[in-house]
């Protein structure tokens, strides 16, 4: 091989796609609370990057998930469930994240529960702008006992909105997720990738640490704790360690609105708070490939969710 040939093909053999063949696009995932948007995002990306729980309003930020396959780079934006009640400063922030995410995208995944369409779904549908293709993702297909029963519902949905395509899926089924990705690929513009081939999210590890702690908080308190609780990362520092290749020290504050909520989080003799910390540490160690030391504190800040300045200070838009 002569030197000129080497310059012309620097990426030969490394699997890289030439820019001329690359496709890349932004795909917004929208829907009312608790239709499985975050679970779907994690399945589409192939790794957990967005927290999930049965509690409504678990997702509070726009989370970007990235998946690169062949010539295609999919940039998924998971959004909070659109809030139709309780006009607090927090909920206004959540809705701003939703409307911002759908303003300039290549395609929208409008996620509903298969066989169901409620007034809250209709309010999200009203937000979608003409000119942007919308895929109706009928999620939780595994909960539909007789598939034949869903055909009339699908016809009814096509009458509600000129959906580009209707894709029934279960986010738990890899073949369904693959089929949805194949559909999404048809809407990706031909353009260079925005992110590196191995990147999974544009969010920092510090942000993900706060999200993981919040997920464990909600999972371990269940319905006892109102959703107006949050987590603030006070310290996220990487330190040298003679024993570990990577060591990260984290300090976080769980913010609740009442003294009674603080007692719920701490639990009997501090056992619940300890378990929240342990489960968060274990997941973060897997996520970051590091040894993690985490300290948790609980503070009461009454009315924070309806205080715009405090909502912003806690990291919401």
Specify the CATH homologous superfamily of the largest domain.
Answer: P-loop containing nucleotide triphosphate hydrolases
Which quaternary structure do these chains form?
Answer: single chain
Question: Helix segment count?
Answer: 10
The mean pLDDT is 80
* Total number of distinct structural domains: 2
As a whole number of angstroms, the C-alpha radius of gyration is 22 Å
Uncertain segments are: 1-14, 53-60
| Helix-and-strand structural type | alpha/beta
Write the H/E string, N to C: HEHEEHEHEHEHHEEHHEH
Beta percentage is 15-25%
Shape: globular
Subunit structure: Monomer.
Organism: Ramlibacter humi
Membrane topology: Peripheral membrane protein
InterPro entries: G_ERA_dom (IPR030388), GTP-bd (IPR006073), GTPase_Era-like (IPR005662), KH_dom-like_a/b (IPR015946), KH_dom_type_2 (IPR004044), KH_sf_prok-type (IPR009019), P-loop_NTPase (IPR027417), Small_GTP-bd (IPR005225)
